[in-house]
Design brief:
Elements: H1 3-14, E1 23-26, H2 36-49, H3 58-62, H4 67-79, H5 85-101, H6 111-120, E2 124-128, H7 134-143, E3 150-152, H8 165-174, E4 181-185, H9 188-197, E5 200-204, H10 211-216, E6 221-223, H11 226-243
Helix pairs in contact: 2-5, 4-5, 6-11
Bound molecules: calcium ion.
Calcium ion (CA) binds next to loops.
Length: 244
């Protein structure tokens, strides 16, 4: 898929005349941080301690749902238990502790370059994450200083990804229409959310999920890394503006 093809397809299926991007809505885990390996380890530990069978790989597929949504779903499926919001939040606290015990999460290579390029190109930047971990949210401010204008977290939405709600709220916070936003995502449910919201959705394959699965979820274009996206961004945006 070339940039031109991706833009032409997007304009065709949305019926928009132009994209004229105003904002980028950027996922956190697997995009800003190389954190998914430790998240999946922490999830498996939580499930095993509670006698719920699971595999590590399945948690890559749930990525984007809020933590409490994942817990409710797994306890229902794996143990036939309906758990309350409070119980789910308490269990999420335990999972967060396991996650922290695994050590610091590295910043994703190329993420600063992507955000800097977006800023220089005049787009607003909003983090849109299902995370409800205060420590991660604080770290974004420290690790990416001055590079974000706002954030939507798991606390701000009724329904997490793949619902379009997180990215629709992100567009609202940026003060523009979803069709004027780029979404940057690494997970199929996150891509589905961005696509369903009506945003131009860019996939990055930073984990084990192959490119074709991100296209299947509705990605308009997919790059192999944040570094690769940073390199092509000026040309992608120029191609969007030329169509306008
Ligand atoms: Ca993610």
């Amino acid at each position: 898929m070339t940039e031109q093809q991706a833009i032409t397809n997007f304009l065709k299926y949305t019926g928009q005349q132009a994209i004229a991007p105003q904002a980028a809505l950027v996922d956190c885990d697997g995009v800003l941080y190389d954190s998914m390996k430790n998240h999946t380890r922490a999830w498996v530990k939580l499930m095993q301690k509670n006698g719920i069978r699971c595999t590590r790989d399945e948690f890559y597929l749930y990525e984007g749902m809020t933590g409490t949504e994942i817990i409710k779903m797994k306890f229902k499926q794996g143990a036939g238990k309906n758990i309350t919001d409070d119980e789910a939040l308490a269990l999420y606290g335990v999972k967060t502790r396991y996650f922290h015990e695994l050590g610091e999460m590295p910043m994703m290579t190329g993420a600063t370059a992507v955000l800097t390029a977006l800023k220089e190109l005049g787009l607003k930047r909003i983090v849109v994450t299902g995370s409800q971990q205060a420590t991660i949210l604080d770290r974004i401010d420290n690790d990416y200083p001055g590079l974000f204008d706002g954030r939507i977290t798991g606390f701000d939405v009724h329904r997490g990804k793949p619902s379009p709600e997180p990215y629709m709220k992100g567009a609202m916070q940026a003060g523009c229409k979803p069709g004027q936003c780029l979404v940057i995502e690494n997970a199929p449910l996150g891509v589905q959310s961005g696509h369903a919201a009506g945003c131009f959705t860019i996939g990055v394959t930073t984990g084990p999920i192959p490119e074709k699965d991100l296209y299947k979820a509705g990605a308009d274009i997919v790059y192999p890394s944040m570094q690769a996206l940073a390199e092509v961004l000026p040309q992608l945006l120029a191609a969007m503006q030329a169509k306008g």
